[in-house]
Write a structure and sequence with these properties.
The chain is about 50% helix and about 5% strand. The chain is α+β, with helices and mostly antiparallel strands. It has three domains: about 60 residues, DNA Methylphosphotriester Repair Domain (3-Layer(aba) Sandwich), CATH 3.40.10.10; about 50 residues, Homeodomain-like (Arc Repressor Mutant, subunit A, Orthogonal Bundle), CATH 1.10.10.60; about 60 residues, Arc Repressor Mutant, subunit A (Orthogonal Bundle). Helix 3 packs across helix 5, helix 4 packs across helix 5 and helix 6 crosses helix 9. Pfam families: Ada_Zn_binding, HTH_18.
């Protein structure tokens, strides 16, 4: 331990191996073999206890020649930095701009630099939907807007919002809106 800390080695070590975010901002740990320092909550692989040093501030770790972890970004201010928020925001931006294109989960995951499995899990945890469900919601919102604001046919709307077949468009529309596109347009124009 390079800097003394009143928590003690055992408490800090337990915080590191359990990725306990309660200790974020109280101390940082560095791994001698990788020359990287992290927050206690970092989800990277637990290091060997004999290869770690503890620091009170990121600046102390940097002075000792360690560089900040790209995953948990310990050099950023704030105790509650959550790298998943940035990933989620990136995915929302990509989906919003490309809702009319076919994007697989793996392609989306590659864009943000994590596996498809983790992307699905993280996104659902933060947003409440999987990326596929989220893009379907965007498509439904766009469909409803187009049905009410343009003379486009149901078929034209279907392809404009990214569906590849009318049957999948009608099925999704019925599921999310509770009626067919034709009924939706008619009911909204009457009200």
């Amino acid at each position: 331990m390079n800097s003394t800390h009143n928590l003690g080695f055992e408490i800090m070590w337990q915080a590191v191996i359990s990725c306990d975010s309660k200790y974020d901002g109280l101390f940082f740990y560095a791994v001698k073999t990788t020359k990287i320092f992290c927050r206690p909550s970092c989800k990277s692989k637990a290091p060997n206890p004999k290869n770690i040093s503890f620091f009170i501030t990121p600046l102390e770790a940097e002075r000792e020649g360690y560089r900040a972890c790209k995953r948990c970004q310990p050099q950023l201010d704030g105790i509650s930095y959550d790298p998943h928020v940035k990933v989620t925001e990136e995915v929302i931006s990509i989906l919003t701009k490309n809702y009319d294109k076919k994007l697989s989960l793996d392609e989306l995951a590659l864009e943000v630099g994590i596996s498809g499995y983790h992307l699905n899990r993280i996104f659902k945890e933060k947003v409440g939907f999987t990326p596929r469900m989220y893009v379907e919601k965007i498509r439904m919102d766009k469909s409803k807007a187009l049905l009410l604001s343009t003379p486009a046919t149901n078929t034209e709307v279907c392809y404009q919002v990214g569906y590849e077949s009318l049957s999948s468009f009608y099925k999704a529309f019925q599921k999310h809106v509770g009626c067919s596109p034709k009924e939706y347009r008619k009911n909204k124009k009457e009200s």
